[in-house]
Write a structure and sequence with these properties.
- The complex is a heterodimer.
- By secondary structure, chain A is mainly alpha-helical.
- Helices cover 69% and strands 0% of the residues of chain A.
- The chains are: A mainly alpha, B mainly alpha.
- Chains A and B meet through helix 2, helix 3, helix 6 and helix 9 of A and helix 1, helix 3 and helix 4 of B.
Chain lengths: 189, 165
């Protein structure tokens, strides 16, 4: 990162290769749209490059990166630049011709369950507040610790604990109602 | 109404509870069916989320980002550094030093034509000189605003006036 701060573009490329997937995944889960997630990821990396001097080696780089990522995504959504969409990314992949990794499911039934799961999670996430969604995404999809999420969101650990609990419980209830057949998943947009 | 311990359940699943709260919750769970059910639901949910396929960005993202970075203008600091490189700084400092010496020489030569710094103070007229001489008296009498010739005469003959009954 210190090399990036001195304008070393090769060092920046290495940094990008190490973290691009993580940032794009965060942006995708945040806005629920693959094309927009890539636009956001581009902006986030350009911001990281421009603000490389602000990075202090005492802080974990991933925390710094997600601070920039969370701020950018929150600001863009608040400015109305992006509406949170949340469709399944199988549908996104079909539309964009992108290849997706195989889901953990092996039988067709389980694969169908995977799509329903994706849809239900997307719906539950679209109903979260922006900070809940950011904290939930960092915790569930990036495996970040509460302390790191608190640093990235400039919040207390107690606040993050509460955000993650509310968000996880909302998804859990959505999945529970899906399992119970209370919400016909196919009828959801 | 949900249990007061419910807030701690997700942190418990994520192994983020501090030791004291962890002990309290583990002591509470066997006696609370609501928390036990919610905990099971949360565990199933977290496992399901972990199994979801990850989103992968397209290869175009790398090209787009590196292209944008290569077009970034240098920062102000980099521009300053470029400006301050020795090839430019040494001649610029030499020119500035020469200019400063020139200005100093001109100032000194001009000062030589004017009055000397230790020349005696010139007093415009005798009245002012008198006033300066008796300034302590004027201040004692609290007549700093004294201006008319009559008043000045009173001050001048103060000794005589004081001698009168």
């Amino acid at each position: 990162m210190l090399q990036v701060a001195s304008g070393d573009q090769a060092a920046f490329a290495a940094l990008f290769d190490r973290h691009a997937q993580s940032v794009a995944r965060f942006a995708y889960r945040f806005v629920g749209d693959a094309a927009r997630a890539e636009e956001l990821a581009q902006d986030i990396f350009v911001k990281v490059y421009r603000n490389a001097r602000a990075y202090r080696p005492s802080a974990k780089f991933k925390t710094f990166l997600f601070k920039v990522a969370a701020n950018h995504c929150l600001n863009e959504v608040r400015r109305g630049e992006y509406r949170v969409k949340h469709t399944t990314h199988e549908a996104e992949a079909e539309a964009t011709g992108q290849e997706l990794p195989e889901a953990a499911a092996s039988s067709p039934d389980e694969a169908l369950h995977g799509k329903e799961l994706e849809r239900a999670v997307g719906e539950a996430m679209s109903q979260m507040t922006e900070r809940e969604r950011a904290a939930f995404t960092m915790c569930r999809f990036e495996g970040m610790a509460y302390r790191e999420i608190a640093d990235a969101l400039a919040a207390s650990e107690a606040a993050v604990k509460s955000l993650i609990h509310r968000a996880t419980l909302a998804v859990a209830r959505k999945l529970s109602s899906l399992e119970a057949g209370a919400v016909p998943a196919r009828s959801q947009a | 109404m949900s249990c007061a311990y419910e807030e701690d359940l997700t942190a418990y699943v994520d192994q983020e509870l501090p030791p004291l709260k962890l002990r309290q919750l583990e002591g509470h769970l066997p006696s609370c069916q609501s928390c036990t059910d919610t905990l099971a639901l949360l565990r199933r949910t977290v496992s399901a989320l972990e199994a979801m396929p990850a989103f992968s960005p397209s290869p175009a993202l790398r090209r787009a980002v590196l292209n944008r970075i290569s077009q970034e203008p240098p920062s102000l600091l980099d521009r300053l550094r470029g400006f301050l490189r020795p090839g430019l700084v040494v001649p610029a400092l030499s020119a500035a030093a020469l200019l400063a010496v020139g200005v100093a020489v001109v100032q000194l030569s001009r000062r030589g034509e004017g009055p000397a710094a230790d020349a005696p103070l010139m007093v415009a007229d005798a009245t002012e000189f008198e006033l300066v001489k008796n300034l302590d008296l004027v201040e004692d009498l609290d007549v700093v605003g004294l201006e008319s010739p009559e008043d000045l005469e009173v001050v001048e003959h103060l000794d005589e006036l004081e001698g009168q009954p």
